[in-house]
C-alpha cells in the first residue's frame, strides 16, 4: 500500500510528463508553419536576344522623341513652315537648328526695338499729362480772376463821395470853395482825387 508521500511524487511526475508533451507539440507546430511559407520564385535571367530587343526598343523611343522635337522646332520657325524632315537627318536637322538660331536673334532685336518704342511712348504720355495739368491750373486761375473782376465791378466805375456836411452845402449839395473827395475805381484799384468846385455867382 502507497503512502501519502509516494502518491504526491507520482502525481508530480505525471504533471512533468504532460508539460514535456506540450513543449514537443509546440515545437512541431512551429516547424510545420515555417515550412509551409511559400518561397519567392527565382527570376530568370534575360537571354542575349531579349536584351538586344529591349535595347532596340529603348533606342527607337529615343529616336522618335528626338524626331518629334525637331518637328516641333521646325514648326515654330516661320521660314521653315511646309518643309519636311528628310531621310538624311544630319543635313535637315542642321538646317533647322540654323534657321531657329537666326529666328531667335531676329525676335530679340524686334523685342528690343519694341521696348524702346514703349519707353518713348511712356515719356510722351508723361509730357502730355504735365501739359494737361498745367492747362487745368491756368483755367482755374483764369476763372478766379474773372470772378474777382466781376465782384469789383466795371474797371472805369467812378464813384463820387463828398466830405461836406449838409449844413455847409449849398442847394446843389456842394459847398462853395471846398474840395470834394472823388473815389475812382479802376481795375480793382481805388484812387482818391480832390475836386474843387467854384460857387456860382449871381449875374
Automatic annotation (TrEMBL):
Record-level GO cellular component terms: RNA polymerase II transcription regulator complex
InterPro entries named among the record's database cross-references: bHLH_dom, HLH_DNA-bd_sf
Keywords: Activator, Coiled coil, DNA-binding, Nucleus, Phosphoprotein, Repressor, Transcription, Transcription regulation
Ranges of compositional bias, category Acidic residues: 1-24
Biased composition (Basic and acidic residues): 56-68
Ranges of Low complexity composition bias in the record: 28-37
One Pfam match: HLH
Keyword Hydrolase: no
Single Gene Ontology MF annotation: protein dimerization activity
Segments of this protein annotated with the region Disordered: 1-94, 148-185
Any one Gene Ontology BP term: positive regulation of transcription by RNA polymerase II
Coiled coil: 104-141
Entry's family note: Belongs to the MAX family.
Name of the protein described by the UniProt record: Protein max
Organism: Orchesella cincta (Springtail)
Amino acid at each position: 500500500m502507497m503512502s501519502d508521500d509516494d502518491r504526491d511524487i507520482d502525481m508530480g511526475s505525471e504533471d512533468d510528463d504532460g508539460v514535456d508533451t506540450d513543449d514537443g507539440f509546440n515545437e512541431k507546430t512551429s516547424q510545420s508553419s515555417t515550412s509551409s511559407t511559400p518561397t519567392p520564385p527565382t527570376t530568370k535571367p534575360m537571354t542575349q536576344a531579349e536584351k538586344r530587343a529591349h535595347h532596340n526598343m529603348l533606342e527607337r523611343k529615343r529616336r522618335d522623341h528626338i524626331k518629334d522635337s525637331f518637328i516641333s522646332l521646325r514648326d515654330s520657325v516661320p521660314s521653315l513652315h511646309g518643309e519636311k524632315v528628310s531621310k538624311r537627318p544630319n543635313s535637315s536637322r542642321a538646317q533647322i537648328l540654323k534657321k531657329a538660331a537666326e529666328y531667335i536673334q531676329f525676335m530679340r532685336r524686334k523685342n528690343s526695338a519694341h521696348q524702346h518704342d514703349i519707353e518713348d511712348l511712356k515719356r510722351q504720355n508723361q509730357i502730355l499729362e504735365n501739359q494737361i495739368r498745367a492747362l487745368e491750373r491756368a483755367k482755374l486761375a483764369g476763372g478766379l480772376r474773372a470772378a474777382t473782376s466781376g465782384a469789383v465791378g466795371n474797371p472805369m466805375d467812378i464813384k463820387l463821395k463828398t466830405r461836406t456836411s449838409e449844413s455847409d452845402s449849398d442847394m446843389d449839395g456842394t459847398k462853395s470853395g471846398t474840395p470834394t473827395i472823388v473815389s475812382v475805381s479802376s481795375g480793382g484799384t481805388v484812387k482818391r482825387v480832390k475836386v474843387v468846385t467854384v460857387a456860382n455867382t449871381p449875374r
